[in-house]
Every structure is written in C-alpha cells, then in structure tokens.
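ok trying this again, last paste got cut off
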Amino acid sequence: MHLIDYLERRGGIARTRELLDAGFSRHVLARAVSREELRRPRQGWVHLPGTDTMLVRAAVSGVVLSCITQARRLGLWVSADDDVVHVAATSPSSVNVVSAHVHWSRPLIPRPPGRLEDPVENVLAIVADCQPHERALATWDSAFNTGLVDRDSFRLFPLRPAARRLLLDVNPFHDAGTETFVHTRLRWLRIPIRPQVWLYGHRVDFLIGERLVLQIDGGHHIGAQRDSDNAHDAILRVHGYTVIRVSYRQLTESWPEVQDLILRAIAQGLHKAA
C-alpha cells in the first residue's frame, strides 16, 4: 500500500513508529517530508496536509480528544455554551497543553500508543465525572439513542459512582438535550410526557398529557420558520390544544419560570382532553 493511502485510512496522521512497523522506510518518510507530501508536527509524528487540525493539535500536545469535545465530534448532544477543549492523558511527562481541560482519570478501555480520539465508552465515563448530572445524562441519552453503546455491554465496565447513576437514568429514546431536560425535570408529575409527537401535519416537541403542547424554539425560529410555527400553533388551538412556546435559553437559564407556566396549565386541566 502506498504511504499516502495508508495515512488517509488512518485519518491523515500517524506515529512514525507505526509507519516503520507497517513497512515504510525512514528514507520514504524523509522523502515525503522533503516533497511536502507530509508534515512533521512534532518528533515522532507525521500527517498529510489538510489533516483535521484537532487531531494534529492532540498529537502535538500529547493528549487524546475526549469528554464533551469528542462527544461533539461523535455527533452526540453537548451543551452549546461549553466551548473549552476537553482532552485526556495518562502520562504527565508527555503532555504539553496550554489551553484545554485535561482529564487524568484511568480510561475504561486502555489507549494504545498513537490513539488521538477516545472511544465512546471512555468519553461517556469522563463526561459522567466532568459534567453536571443533567447535562451528562443528555449526552449519555444521545449516545444510547444512536446505538453507539448499549446498556447491557456498558454495565460490564468498572464504572465510577456518577457513571453508575447515569446508567440507571439513561433513556435511549431521547435523542436531544431538550428531551432529556424536560423529561428529567417533569417526571415527578406522573403525567405522560411524549417527545416528537406528530399532530396535524407537524411534529411538536412535547405533548404533556393529552392536550398540552410544549414547543422549544432554537436559533432557527425566524422568518419563514417562525411563520410556519405560528400557523401550526393556531391550528392546534383550533383543535383544542394549549401551546406553550419557549426558547432554548429559557429552558436552560430560566427553568423555574417555564416550569411555573406548565404547572399552572396543568392545574387548570389544560393537559386533559375535554
């Protein structure tokens, strides 16, 4: 296999030792570097031009992308207001990090040399100890919902207390943070709360009981989208539904006020069919 092809299959970056073990000579590597087909970000590593900068930074820093940073890269739900890079490491002597949150906990799955991204099991274990329970649960729900992990296999790992608690609470049917937040915060009501219910041509975020609809607006709720949402709200009201529409910011930053609206509607029986 050609050197470039090999690296492309490895995400564009690899340790020099791995390439030598794979049969590529030092002469071939040096020639590729001299031709600028490869670059050396640090001693012992080479990468293709255009390689994911996060992977290159991890190699230079001697760390592994993990926690919410890797969760986001895996497509899992992560709070939008946390933009700090989270990484993991096991040997302080090899780490050179300037601006990142470094996790030093022992990984569930050992990291082989040259690994730059934690597997999802390690990611979730670190998220459990790093993030508040509710945010961690939203990330876990997302991982179980997408099938990246399953409860039966995950329970076999030596989990720490926070992770064991999350494993008890995780709901694989939740695919977004808003679903986790609303379900977690209102489950004490003992009233059915169903996410993503199809009503009169559109999905609603939550149907509480039989007639109370909770809609969560994101940043897209402008222009044509807002007109469409408002028209659907009107249709729902004509058919006997009560609609409570709040923003994502209200859900995350002003929950007591949102909860009060929902509880008052329930107290008035607006969640029940006539």
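PB: full thing came through this time. The CA atoms of residues 11 and 51 lie 7 Å apart.
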